[in-house]
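Allow me, if you will, to draw on your knowledge of protein folds for a short while. I have a record of one protein: its chain in single-letter code and its fold written as discrete structure tokens. I should value your view on which stretches of the chain appear to form regular backbone elements. Thank you for your consideration; the sequence and its tokens are set out here:
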Amino acid sequence: MTSYKSYIEEQRGRRHSGVMSGQTLTLHGTIVFLCDAEGPVIAGDRDSADLIGDAFGSGATVIALPLARLSPDFLKLSTRVAGEILQKLINYRFRVIILGDVSEAVAGSDALRDFVVESNRGEMVWFLPDLAALEARLVLQAS
């Protein structure tokens, strides 16, 4: 019988074809489930549950979500979509990285700007432009 640890080691670096297809990366000692840029839109609680299942299966502690995969309502805080999705993922102890350019949406909303700034000061949710920025942030965190 394969141990859980052995299973996780086998999964690293592999493509995952679950509901929320993506790949598992190890960046500076952190296991990241990187969702593919194309695929079903993540718009709420049920989608978050699918994502959690795929991320758990990969052994990740961080989920990186391309902005293109999120519902347009995600950046409209009054819809509560961001809160619903992020809270669900955080409740399962995942750190969440939103990858993409949010500058236009931030320019149009003081509340969103404040949310992004405060999130980026913390440890659980970061808004970053790309995977290279995530790698740089993880390097800083490791030192």
Confidence is low (pLDDT under 50) at residues 1-18. The first strand starts at residue 15 and ends at 16. The chain is about 45% helix and 20% strand. The chain has one domain: 4-142.
